[in-house]
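Supplementary Methods. Inverse-folding protocol.

Structures were first reduced to a discrete structure-token string of length 132. This string, shown here, constituted the complete conditioning input.
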């Protein structure tokens, strides 16, 4: 046998195609997860002419038009909202809750969320609105 001829046995594994496929799958996963996250929580926010930018650590509570409550992307039962908010509070620092309620949600549901925020000991509460 001569070195470099076609009769030589392959002694190493070419991992280049494996890395190529892995990177393509990773890119597809990242692109689709962003699109899925954007489509999953659609609410029609009310409009306001006066808005203020928020500071500090902020978590979002979304009240969907069905009345479902979503805390940082996870659905929460109304009875468990206080405990879930208390678990999100940092040991130090300030926590602000931004409530984004669909304009078709009944007022009582938003008041329930406000009460839960206050019961959790969080005093900074803001409402998400859409600029006209």
């Amino acid at each position: 046998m001569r070195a470099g001829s076609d009769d030589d046995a392959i002694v190493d594994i070419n991992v280049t195609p494996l890395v190529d496929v892995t990177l393509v799958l990773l890119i597809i996963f990242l692109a689709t997860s962003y699109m899925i996250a954007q489509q999953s929580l659609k609410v029609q926010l009310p409009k306001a002419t006066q808005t203020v930018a928020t500071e500090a650590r902020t978590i979002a509570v979304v009240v969907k038009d069905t009345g479902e409550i979503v805390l940082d992307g996870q659905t929460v039962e109304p009875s468990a909202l206080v405990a879930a908010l208390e678990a999100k509070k940092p040991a130090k620092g300030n926590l602000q809750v931004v409530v984004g309620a669909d304009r078709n949600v009944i007022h009582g549901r938003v008041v329930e969320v406000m009460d839960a925020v206050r019961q959790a000991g969080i005093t900074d509460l803001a409402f998400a609105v859409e600029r006209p």
